[in-house]
Amino acid sequence: xxxxxxxxxxxxxxxxxxxxxxxxxxxxxxxxxxxxxxxxxxxxxxxxxxxxxxxxxxxxxxxxxxxxxxxxxxxxxxxxxxxxxxxxxxxxxxxxxxxxxxxxxxxxxxxxxxxxxxxxxxxxxxxxxxxxxxxxxxxxxxxxxxxxxxxxxxxxxxxxxxxxxxxxxxxxxxxxxxxxxxxxxxxxxxxxxxxxxxxxxxxxxxxxxxxxxxxxxxxxxxxxxxxxxxxxxxxxxxxxxxxxxxxxxxxxxxxxxxxxxxxxxxxxxxxxxxxxxxxxxxxxxxxxxxxxxxxxxxxxxxxxxxxxxxxxxxxxxxxxxxxxxxxxxxxxxxxxxxxxxxxxxxxxxxxxxxxxxxxxxxxxxxxxxxxxxxxxxxxxxxxxxxxxxxxxxxxxxxxxxxxxxxxxxxxxxxxxxxxxxxxxxxxxxxxxxxxxxxxxxxxxxxxxxxxxxxxxxxxxxxxxxxxxxxxxxxxxxxxxxxxxxxxxxxxxxxxxxxxxxxxxxxxxxxxxxxxxxxxxxxxxxxxxxxxxxxxxxxxxxxxxxxxxxxxxxxxxxxxxxxxxxxxxxxxxx
Length: 573
Ligand code: DGT
Ligand code: CA
Ligand code: CA
Ligand code: ZN
What we know:
The chain is of the alpha/beta class.
């Protein structure tokens, strides 16, 4: 598979950080970080562009020197300047750079003032309270370092499902062409749409003999073949992802798919149910004695136990087996139910595309409406809108709506929730919008009580309609800030506020457990992509999957309403 834009961007960021530590000219350092940002926010695959011989310097933020480096990366997988710096940098320093929130300056301080040569040295210094005494450090940073070390020592790396999706698609494409291959599917947590996956579990059926195993272990992105058998092989890819491939017989395909989709908790419940009925279930089928009762399809396997089909997103052992038995499985929201997207950015702030391009993509997705939510003024890095620029955008939307057909742009904003819970723009302008998306973007470290009050206070404003990414987490990167979610959901329900399921694969915020809680409390949710480009509107499927994992139906989701009903329900005044 070709290298992704974010992998390319990471290389430039890493180069910038390491040069920063070495004391390189800040302008050069910044240039690399700027390039990384430009690359990361570029919707088209740079690898594809290089392959097609397209001119990269036409892209915003990419000059000739950077374009040349990108070309080298795409062709060799490496950035030579970075290789040189890495060769002269101590390994521990590179490891230290992985600690989110530490940054080059503090890494340099740790290295020079404490004489830390290994991660063990670092752990000792943290445990003995030496780090908190350094200039620019405190107990919080010390705790952060210890936490990171814990994770590093456990050594478990889970990948975003989104990253795994790219890897899986490329591998499936490679395997599909093998003679004899009939069905291929990715089972495991990937199929259950868990937000992160530990490894990929792939099942294949073949008609007669097939060289699929031999073909699999020759895949060019493999770093190590861990085991190679006729029915099962296991490999580690160059990005450290593990992949298991199993070849199963057609008569067992449904049973194997059911077994390897899991979860383990779900399977244990299913097996217990089978045993109670005097049946035996395993990855080969459902049996009474030696007689095979089911195995070809999953529907058969569940049916044989007297159950309706249970979709993978529900298979977490959270009561779905009992619900299936009693005929009360939820009717889950589906992508086709979504009538509009309620959170996206345009070129006015930090988006890549203009409003017309966004509108056309929304229309091609079959939506009736698209809420334009650029940032508000406090977010200066994103050139957030002040009242004057917002009013200009509102006029622009009015004009566009006259010419656009079959899609309506809604006037909205992603407005910052300030530290005291007030909103970043005056009510006089907020009241003229169709709705608002309100976000915490700074001061993540308030106490649970203060952070909860901040959000409750924001919801007291009648022009606060949707709370965006309610916990602020970034998967594998930033923990959620502590809040009393139950209190917030009750308050939102009572006040007619909506909470967002942000569909960005590294946010997925609310998470699945929050979705279950929202269902119980009865608060309305919005599923929104937070797209920063037209292409980004396609991520809706991730938010819908998260909602499905939380047992939610279309009736729980406000953007399944048609435009008139939506307008009526979103207003709090
Ligand atoms: P992951 O990879 O950590 O994201 O999670 P899974 O669910 O993909 O787990 P994995 O890869 O260890 O195994 C794939 C499926 O195989 C799992 O969901 C259920 C099934 N399985 C694995 N081990 C057991 C087991 O000991 N008992 C039962 N009943 N099923 C198992
Ligand atoms: Ca797995
Ligand atoms: Ca596995
Ligand atoms: Zn946003």
